[in-house]
Predict the 3D structure of the following.
Amino acid sequence: FKTMRRQQTSALQLPHTGMVSAVDLGDPTSPLDPIHPRHKAEIGKRLATQIAGHVYGIPIPATSIPPSLVPSGTKTARGRIVLAFSHGDGLHTAGTRGCRTCCDD
């Protein structure tokens, strides 16, 4: 999963590309996998909203679609990693219990 996500994220470097989050739409009864929801209409709505903003300049309220899971910036400070998100209102952490390194680099 991490390799696929890394490739998706790197594609955002290309012009006229975007990505929306669907993590909150998980489908635990899906025969394929819980992360592949069968109800695609909400994903289409999120993509259409993003396109309306980027192509036609229609203002997109930060609350209209879940924030992307891609940080807009990162930095290290005093042994900590600080992540910044463009639409971070309402994001919070639940502590670091269970956190672990998940990537090879």
In short: Helices lie at 2-11, 41-56. The beta strands are 73-77, 80-84. Residues 2-69 form one domain. The two ends are 15 Å apart (CA to CA).
